[in-house]
Design goal:
- The protein is an alpha+beta fold and 841 residues long.
- 27% of the residues lie in helices and 23% in strands.
- The protein has 17 helices and 42 strands.
- The strands form nine sheets. Strands 1-2-3-4-5-10-19-18-15 form a nine-stranded antiparallel beta sheet, with no helix packed on it. Strands 6-7-8-9-20-17-16-11-12 form a nine-stranded antiparallel beta sheet, with no helix packed on it. Strands 22, 24, 25, 28, 29 and 30 form a six-stranded mixed beta sheet that branches.
- Strand 4 and strand 5 form a beta hairpin.
């Protein structure tokens, strides 16, 4: 049957190679919601919904989804919505003053032949003062449109690489609380409406780009049949406008806009969306392999991703490439590769483990082929894990100037850190300061000892305690496990200068551990407790793109100083104690004073933090278990650091609970069980491992990749790396139960063997094809940081794995501290260690 028909399984409209979804996803802030168009394997448009502005940004109000009805008889999807979703924003994400107009509305998407018709009905008319502002928007992904054309009625134009003027000034619908303070909104309005208004980039609907064109019928990509679609405004008195949302928001998209006329409720907007259909299109097969290659002794499996409608099968063939360029057939299979269905694709698996000769190889599936890869005994010896230490960690260092020969990655930054955050306060990035500072310092008072150490977290510049201590922890365990010695960087804590590719005779990994601990311990010494985080105090600073050295002036006591937040969070504090205990072991004999102080703080946190009673309340029960798990983690690391009986006895007393919670605590118990030397404890742990292995096997069977793929918002890469990291300790302690395959598969997933057509390495600069556009400090330049590891392939619900080349999709291309790159480095070192029999680096 031709035309757009609702798929009963996926609940989206399907017409051969084109899908149109209607509110099947959950993340409008990240361009993942509303009406979306997927054409021939690529998402071209998203977030079709009612908004309060023509080109909304990340923090503008979004509506609340109240209900979704799928009617297969009417071939329609209808959603009931209300505006705004105040809880979504005022709960820690967007301290915003909303327009004084609240309303409900309904959006209906209906398949009609070769089109999908989208209709908007309101429960009350739009007031005159909001006429021209409240509108239905459909956002267009910029990355596939640069240099492509559009036609609006009788006018034509091109989508430019950079946003261009002229500009359009208008009265804003609302003002943001630009300093994040929800308790002084009237003062914020006055301040932001005055001299400072022009400097605040988040009052973003007052200056926008003039539309490229206005009309009734818009065709996108008329010369590209795979991405061509037409949108038509079907209601008299409505028209389309084509905007460039990147002019007032760097991370914006192009926007098709249809204003809702004042006074209208029923059929306020009706759009006819007609994509071009390629009759015989099928998804291009993707041959997925590691972009780095394989060690001769490891398991080697390629995955081939196919259109689920394609029944024909081709040969899968392994070729060795000779010096003369000849391609020699080594292995071919057409009958034993079928794996089955996963998400929207069918999969084949091609095992070539038995091929051990060193050389260059590629795999072909019919006419489609993989990247060329190596099989070699030294595959992990150079340029694979090392860029994390050589580039990424140095570049992320806060309170330093970072040079690389002629290049300055960033200047000395944040020397004025930090002042106490205001009370009863919610920051846009989720930090919350309660009724007290929990310290001797008053709000706004400068706190000493916070301007040393630490790394900028993620694509912004804040210092979250769990990111700092988590990074320290993973690096410390990597140092302990694999005895790393690597010196390619000079780090001078006195001059606060880091020189990339300038060795200083010191072990880089220990210098990085030291740098992270300096931030945590320095804050603890001043505050008498851990900080929650250190972050910018204004939106102007928070959205800063560029050199971190220019975020503040570096002079303490000025209004641009960052804020330090504190909290009572027993679980997070105990996890940090575990991390500091591990760091104390790594830093011994490198920085003995810092090592001793780290251990003192860890023991102090352990002693003063109690486990709350586990109640019947589910929320409290979850929190109590989190605290208990964290205390067990801290006890294990403190026992490994001190061998004190108090920690051993605590672990033994919790043996039954650990056994019952083996899924989350098994890897922690595995690190300590052998040296605890208690028969009862060992028996309790060992008896629970069979079931744990069974659950791992079930997870491995979920996907053709040997690892579970379960993204929520962010891509699944980081979770899979953490899984491989934790699994390593189970394999090391109980190799007779846990084979190393999940470790290998976790690494291969990150290095290119993952779902979707973009089978790059998530590790920037590592492998033949890698993520060379990342959400890091240089994202505005469409660039990357070597050794940074992106979150990777996300899931566009319900079934599209997606990894776009675009610097502003944080949920796909962001770098983070506390596991993103360090877990990856650990995995590479673990695989290397297993294959090389424990040879030191």
């Amino acid at each position: 049957m031709n035309g757009f028909i609702l798929n009963g399984e996926t609940e989206y409209f399907q017409n051969r190679g084109v899908d149109i979804t209607a509110f099947g996803d959950i993340y409008p802030e990240g361009h993942q919601s509303g009406v979306s168009i997927i054409m021939h394997g690529n998402r071209v448009a998203a977030n079709g919904d009612v908004r309060f502005e023509q080109t909304p940004g990340q923090w503008q109000p979004v509506p609340k989804l109240n209900g979704r009805e799928v009617n297969r008889e009417l071939n329609s999807v209808a959603v009931s919505m209300s505006y705004p979703d105040e809880a979504r924003h005022l709960g820690g994400f967007n301290p915003m003053i909303y327009p004084d107009f609240k309303f409900d509305y309904k959006i209906t998407a209906e398949g009609k032949g070769e089109s999908v018709i989208v209709t908007v009905d309101l429960n009350k008319p739009v007031p005159e003062k909001f006429a021209g502002k409240i509108c239905f928007n459909l956002e267009l992904f910029p990355g596939i449109l640069f240099g492509k054309y559009w036609i609006m009625d009788n006018k034509q134009g091109v989508f430019p690489i950079q946003p261009n003027g002229p500009l359009l000034s208008q009265e804003p619908n609302y003002l943001n609380a630009g300093d994040f303070n929800n308790n002084s909104l009237k003062a914020d309005i006055k301040r932001l409406a005055g001299d400072n208004k022009k400097y605040n980039p988040i009052i973003a609907d007052d200056i926008i780009a003039e539309p490229y064109a206005t009309g009734k019928r818009l065709t996108i990509c008329p010369d590209d049949l795979y991405n061509k679609f037409t949108v038509e405004a079907a209601i008299e008195g409505t028209q389309l406008k084509l905007y460039d949302g990147r002019l007032n928001h760097n991370n914006g998209w192009f926007v098709i806009n249809c204003e809702i006329p004042a006074g209208r409720t029923e059929n306020a907007v009706k759009l006819i969306i007609t994509p071009n259909i390629i009759e015989d299109w099928v998804y291009t097969p993707v041959v997925q392999t590691s972009q780095v290659g394989y060690h001769p002794e490891q398991t080697k499996t390629a995955v081939i991703e196919l259109d689920k409608r394609e029944n024909k099968r081709e040969n899968v063939t392994l070729y060795k490439i000779t010096e003369s360029g000849e391609e020699q057939v080594l292995l071919s299979d057409a009958e034993n590769c079928e794996w089955g269905r996963f998400l929207r694709y069918n999969y084949l698996k091609f095992d070539f483990t038995d091929i051990k000769d060193e050389g260059l190889y590629k795999i072909k599936y019919g006419a489609f082929e993989s990247s060329v890869f190596r099989i070699a005994g030294d595959i992990y010896e150079r340029g694979v894990w090392q860029p994390v230490l050589e580039y990424f960690l140095p570049v992320q260092m806060c309170h330093m100037r970072v040079n690389e020969k002629y290049r300055v990655w960033h200047d000395l930054c944040h020397g004025d850190d930090a002042v106490m955050a205001p009370l009863n306060f919610i920051h846009i990035d989720g930090y919350v300061q309660g009724e007290s500072t929990l310290t001797k310092y008053k709000p706004g008072e400068s706190v000493p000892g916070l301007n040393s150490g630490g790394w900028h977290d993620a694509g912004d510049f804040d210092l979250r305690v769990e990111s700092q201590s988590g990074e320290v922890y993973i690096l410390s365990l990597a140092y302990e496990e694999f005895n790393i010695y690597y010196d390619a960087t000079s780090i001078d804590q006195d001059s606060k200068i880091t020189e990339i590719h300038q060795p200083d005779g010191k072990n880089d990994i220990l210098q990085q551990i030291e740098h992270g601990v300096l931030s945590i311990v320095g804050a603890y010494n001043s505050l008498g407790r851990l900080y929650r985080g250190i972050i910018e105090n204004s939106l102007r600073q928070y959205v800063h793109l560029g050199d971190s050295g220019s975020v503040t002036d570096g002079i303490k006591g000025n209004s641009d100083d960052r804020w330090v937040f504190t909290e009572n969070n027993p679980a997070r504090e105990l996890n940090t104690a575990a991390h500091l205990a591990a760091a104390s072991r790594a830093l011994k004999d490198f920085n003995n004073q810092l090592s001793v102080r780290s251990l003192e703080i860890a023991e102090e946190i352990f002693d003063i933090t109690n486990i709350p009673d586990i109640s019947d309340n589910l929320k409290n029960q979850k929190n109590s278990r989190w605290v208990k798990n964290s205390k067990i983690h801290a006890a294990a690391e403190l026992f490994l650091a001190t061998k004190k009986d108090k920690y051993r006895d605590f672990l033994i007393s919790e043996s039954e609970y650990i056994s019952e919670s083996i899924d989350s605590l098994g890897w922690i118990a595995a690190r300590a069980e052998k040296i605890i030397c208690d028969e009862k404890f060992s028996k309790a742990i060992y008896n629970s491992l069979t079931e744990l292995k069974k659950r791992f096997e079930e997870q491995r069977a979920e996907t053709p990749y040997g690892v579970p793929y379960r993204p929520h918002i962010w891509g699944a890469g980081w979770n899979i790396q953490r899984l491989g990291f934790q699994y390593y300790f189970l394999h090391k302690a109980y190799p007779e139960i846990f084979s190393p395959e999940m470790i290998f598969d976790s690494l291969n997933f990150v290095l290119g063997c993952h779902p979707g057509s973009n089978n790059i390495s998530f590790a920037s600069g590592v492998g033949v094809k890698s993520a060379v556009v990342g959400y890091g400090l240089n994202r505005a330049d469409w660039s990357y940081i070597p050794g940074g590891v992106i979150s990777g392939t996300a899931l566009i619900r319900p079934d599209l794995p997606e990894l776009l080349e675009f610097p502003y999709l944080w949920q796909q291309t962001e770098y983070v501290m506390g596991g993103g790159s360090s877990h990856y480095m650990f995995l590479v070192l673990a695989v290397r260690d297993i294959l090389n029999g424990g040879e030191n680096i």
